Amino acid sequence: MNRFPASKKMTMSAVCIALCVVLPMAFHAIPNGGQMFLPMHIPVLLCGLICGWQFGFLCGILGPLLSSALTGMPPAPILPAMMVECGVYGITAGLMMSKIHSGSIYRDLYVSLPVAMLAGRMFSGISKALIFAPGMGIRVWVMASFVTALPGIVVQLVLLPSLVVFLQKANVIPARYPKKDGMEADK
């Protein structure tokens, strides 16, 4: 995605940061909707996947911070660990997409996305254990990060690759593997 100008990356990042505020508001209308569906993770991961690690990191830090300031979600005690988790999501998603070039956009996304999701959860757990919530045990972390969050994990794995491909086909972002000889290279 080298042909994606910085100005467009900034614009896309701003849209993703705004989505970090708007999506949680919609999902928090559902009881435990935020914890189950992880709506803030979607725009952060998307930003890292399509704009690169620098913009993904900024989205991961600024999205939760702005959302907390404007809506109170996430609440102040949860905010620092959420910023760590989302920041790592953005960095890892962007770095993985810059390093993985399998010839298929779907393969690249399905390698990059789970690695980013796992790295963010690991760093969040470590930061909680060492700094933000030292009394939290591994069982609580596993329940919150994997069991309760399973619907959100599934949504991310289904939605994000399709969304990235859709944005490419709609020419919103440049194609990762441009067409060659009239055939689409990223099938």
Give descriptors for this structure.
187 residues; mainly alpha; 73% helix; globular
Topology overview:
Layout: H1 6-27, H2 33-37, H3 41-51, H4 53-71, H5 79-99, H6 105-132, H7 138-147, H8 150-169
Helix pairs in contact: 1-3, 1-4, 3-4, 3-5, 3-8, 4-5, 5-6, 6-8
Q: What do these coordinates show?
A:
- The chain is an all-alpha fold and 187 residues long.
- Helix content is 73%, strand content 0%.
- The chain contains 8 helices and no strands.
- It has helices at 6-27, 33-37, 41-51, 53-71, 79-99, 105-132, 138-147, 150-169.
- The longest helix has 28 residues, at 105-132.
- The protein is globular.
- It starts with 5 loop residues before the first helix and ends in an 18-residue tail after the last helix.
Number-wise, the strands total 0
Indicate the percent of residues in helices. Answer: over 70%
Number of helices: 8
Q: For the residues shown, what is the average pLDDT?
A: 92
Structural class, by secondary structure, is: mainly alpha
End-to-end Cα distance:
17 Å
What's the helix-strand series? HHHHHHHH
Quote the beta fraction.
under 5%
